[in-house]
């Protein structure tokens, strides 16, 4: 019954040395950039200006580039650009071809392997876009895209059709029309600013948008979806946080996939956001070679909480064209959820979701904890595989008999 890939027999947790190591916080360090001044290194604009963006740079800094990575990087700028800030590059383990950071940001030739059922717009965003840059797919909320640029480009990105503009999507948000649409639709109570990465806008431009959105009376709260605190924690300046805190209620969803991304620099950046009163949640994408095992995900979830971030979603990787090599199975995802629920704090357990292919929206997927429902009981199991009965009539009326634990042979 129980499919627990993390807890061993007798409640022991195997792989505890790796688990503890993953939970440690380290600085990304200076790597090849020891001669850069502290002022430059901590300046997000310097980091952006010095991104690794060409095959020549990558070959020089990563001499262990594999033929697969070489082939991918040759083609990257026609599909999804190569871009890695020096800070984030330092998290790559050059000695490890299977480094989980490397799999996420170094292009690979497999990205050109397209299956007929893969899609360039797997969430059907373009078909739910009433004005350029706005996606209205759910009744009471909208996605407000502000840019097609990111600090680094994730090789599995759902919006790889548009971000970086390598494939010529030519994204041009129309802020006036986007804001006007929100203003005219009183049912919209929640706006998610996304992209690309909204925190790549200057403080002034971002404030211009937040101010105008905040002035719309029916908007209850605003959200920003960003991977900047992970790719470029230097961007989370005290000035940015002071500006953001004027527009509460404002939530920020970050995107981190692996515990090694949570460095001391990231923890400090997230602390600044949290100190500005911003509730923080994390969205991870379940990725083969990166985080499709219980030890990694449990360490990641617990480390996020130490950074004051609630693990919010684990996404099944969308059927984005050329992503098969990075997609982990739903079975793995369910096993990971099984290994979390009950085995660690409820706050550390995110919701696992599949974005239904083609625009069906997010569907929560969970291991089965309700084993049966019939006329007089609901039969459930707990995280240890023990089975219990909850007395209840078919119409939901409580029944006058005590609940009980069921011995498995009886249930079977
Ligand atoms: S940061 Fe987000 S939008 Fe940008 S490439 Fe990564 S997943 Fe895509």
Please characterize this protein's 3D structure.
The chain has 412 residues and is an alpha/beta fold. It has 15 helices and 13 strands. It has helices at 16-23, 38-41, 44-49, 55-61, 67-79, 86-89, 100-105, 175-184, 203-214, 228-231, 238-244, 264-275, 294-306, 330-340, 408-411; strands spanning 134-138, 141-145, 190-194, 221-226, 250-255, 280-286, 310-316, 351-356, 361-364, 370-373, 377-381, 387-391, 404-406. A nine-stranded mixed sheet has the order 1-2-3-4-5-6-7-8-9. A four-stranded antiparallel sheet has the order 10-11-12-13. α1 packs parallel to α13. The longest helix has 13 residues, at 67-79. It is globular. The chain starts with 15 loop residues before the first helix and ends with a helix. Iron/sulfur cluster (SF4) binds next to loops. Iron/sulfur cluster is lined by residues 150, 153-154, 157, 159, 163, 195-197, 227, 255.
């Amino acid at each position: 019954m129980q499919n627990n890939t993390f807890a061993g027999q007798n409640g022991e947790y195997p792989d505890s040395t790796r688990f503890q190591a993953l939970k440690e916080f380290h600085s990304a360090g200076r790597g090849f950039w020891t001669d850069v001044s502290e002022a430059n290194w901590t300046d997000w604009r310097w980091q952006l200006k010095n991104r690794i963006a060409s095959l020549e740079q990558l070959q020089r800094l990563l001499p262990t580039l594999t033929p697969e990575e070489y082939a991918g990087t040759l083609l990257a700028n026609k599909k999804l650009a190569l871009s890695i800030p020096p800070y984030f590059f330092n998290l790559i383990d050059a000695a490890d071809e299977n480094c989980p950071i490397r799999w996420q940001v170094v292009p690979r030739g497999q990205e050109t392997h397209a299956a007929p059922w893969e899609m360039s717009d797997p969430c059907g965003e373009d078909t739910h876009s009433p004005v350029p840059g706005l996606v209205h797919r759910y009744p009471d909320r909208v996605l407000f895209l502000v840019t097609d640029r990111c600090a680094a480009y994730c090789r599995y990105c759902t919006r790889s059709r548009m971000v970086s503009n390598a494939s010529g999507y030519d994204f041009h948000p129309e802020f006036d029309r986007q804001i006007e649409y929100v203003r005219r639709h009183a049912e919209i109570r929640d706006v998610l600013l996304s992209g690309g990465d909204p925190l790549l806008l200057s403080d002034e431009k971002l404030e211009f948008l937040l101010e105008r959105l905040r002035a719309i009376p029916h908007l209850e709260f605003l959200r920003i979806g960003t991977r900047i605190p992970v790719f470029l924690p230097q961007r989370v300046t005290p000035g940015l946080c002071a500006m953001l805190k004027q527009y509460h209620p404002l939530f920020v969803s970050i995107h981190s996939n692996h515990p090694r991304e949570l460095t001391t620099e990231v923890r400090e950046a997230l602390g600044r956001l949290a100190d500005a009163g911003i509730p923080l949640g994390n969205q991870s994408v379940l990725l083969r070679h990166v985080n499709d095992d219980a030890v990694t995900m449990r360490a990641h979830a617990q480390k996020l909480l130490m950074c004051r971030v609630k693990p919010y979603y684990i996404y099944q990787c969308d059927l984005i064209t050329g992503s098969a090599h990075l997609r982990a199975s739903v079975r793995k995802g369910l096993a990971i959820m099984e290994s979390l629920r009950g085995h660690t704090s409820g706050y550390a357990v995110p919701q696992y979701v599949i974005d239904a292919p083609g625009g069906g929206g997010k569907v929560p997927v969970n291991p089965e904890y309700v084993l049966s429902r019939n006329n007089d009981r609901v039969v459930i199991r707990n995280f240890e595989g023990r089975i219990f009965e909850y007395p209840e009539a078919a119409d939901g009326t409580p029944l006058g008999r005590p609940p009980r634990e069921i011995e498995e042979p009886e249930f079977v």
